[in-house]
Structure formats: structure tokens, C-alpha cells
Design goal:
TIM Barrel; alpha/beta; 8 helices; binds zinc ion
Length: 214
């Protein structure tokens, strides 16, 4: 009997951890998806980067593609002109928290709301950007984060294709992973802070037969 209880508790705990770490499970937040559209949306997290983001913006212009950029508040504070340029080129900017702290999932909802969501929102507003898009760092969602997003009136944008471009693998592995997983209507997660981001994007777009958001 006691073992049955232990097994059930462990299963519940595993489910809790699984759904907190997997934004695709959509347990705590109703993530905005591209369902209904047959186009692929490229999304870039963790910028703005003073070197790679401007290069990427030029490449996206060349490829006639529009993307979403989820920027970190404290980086936006350092490079406001790049964030403005993202918008000027026709892309969308979303909030990716103020500090990108990996331990924020353990914080209380009020602290997360104030120090991560609203602090980044204030930075963005101070440079003239109003956004209702949010992507939680590392894709971690839980009840506290769901509450904070709802209070801030933010739509959480998830992904269905994770490139794992931060793993420091050869570019071919990253692009192959993305190309084999992409479907019409996919949202692809990439990082514009990485040096190889332009090569990866060029390869994905030129090798894929799918339509991208333009
Ligand atoms: Zn991130």
C-alpha cells in the first residue's frame, strides 16, 4: 500500500517537473502558436547582441523574412539602438525577462512579476517599445510564472522546434535537427547571441521548401 502511494507521488512529481520544463506541454500557460498558419516563424532569444544581431538583421532583410526577437531587459538597456532597429526593420520584439536567471522558477510570483517581467517591460517602454509577447527563460513555466504573465497581460510564445544551437555542436547537426523537425506552421527557437546564427539561418531557409513568415 505504502509503495503504491510512493509510486503515485513520484509520478505526480515527474509530471510536475516535466510540464514545468516543457513549454510545449502548455500546462501552465496557453502558449501562442502558429496553428492556422502554414508559414514557419523564426524566433531569436537572448539578444540583443552588439555583433550578431545587426548581422542577422541584414541577413533577414536579404532573405525577406520577418522574425520575433525575445530580448533580455538588461541587454536591451545596454543596446537600445539595436532593439529599435529590430522594430524599424519590421520584426517583433518580445520580453524575455530582465536577467534571464535560471533560478527564477523557484521565486514567488510577485518577485517574478516585478523583477523580471515588469522590469524588462519598463526598459522596453523607455526605448519606445510596447510588447505583449513574452517568452520565459529556458521555456520554464509553472503556476507562479503563469500568474505573473496573466497579471502583466502577456501572451507566452512557445516553440515546437528547438534547435539546441547553444550546445556548441557543429553547424550541420543544428541545421539538420531544425530541417527534419520543421513543419508548416512551426515556431523555431534560435539564439541571436551566437556567432554562427547567420550561417544556420541561411542554411535553414535556403534548404527548406517551407514558406517562412515574411
Ligand atoms: Zn533565453
Amino acid at each position: 500500500m505504502i509503495w503504491a502511494v510512493v509510486v503515485i507521488l513520484l509520478a505526480l512529481l515527474a509530471y510536475e517537473v516535466y510540464s514545468a520544463a516543457n513549454i510545449k506541454a502548455q500546462r501552465f500557460v496557453k502558449a501562442q502558436t502558429m496553428s492556422g498558419s502554414n508559414k514557419v516563424l523564426l524566433t531569436f532569444d537572448d539578444g540583443p547582441d552588439p555583433v550578431n544581431t545587426p548581422r542577422l538583421l541584414d541577413l533577414l532583410d536579404e532573405l525577406h523574412i520577418k522574425a520575433y526577437f525575445f530580448v533580455i531587459g538588461e541587454k536591451a538597456q545596454q543596446h537600445p539602438e539595436i532593439v529599435r532597429e529590430i522594430v524599424r526593420r519590421g520584426h517583433k520584439v518580445g520580453n524575455h525577462s530582465m536577467h534571464h536567471n535560471p533560478f527564477h522558477g523557484f521565486w514567488g510570483p510577485h518577485k517574478y512579476y516585478r523583477d523580471e517581467i515588469m522590469a524588462a517591460d519598463e526598459v522596453l517602454r523607455s526605448i519606445g517599445i510596447h510588447t505583449n509577447l513574452f517568452r520565459p527563460p529556458l521555456g520554464i513555466t509553472n503556476r507562479q510564472i503563469a500568474w505573473a504573465c496573466k497579471k502583466a497581460g502577456l501572451h507566452v510564445v512557445a516553440w515546437d522546434v528547438r534547435s539546441f544551437d547553444t550546445r556548441n555542436e557543429p553547424r550541420e547537426i543544428v541545421t539538420k535537427r531544425v530541417l527534419t523537425q520543421m513543419r508548416p506552421g512551426s515556431i523555431v527557437l534560435l539564439h541571436d547571441r551566437l556567432d554562427g546564427v547567420c550561417d544556420v539561418v541561411r542554411e535553414i531557409v535556403t534548404k527548406s521548401e517551407l514558406e517562412f513568415v515574411r
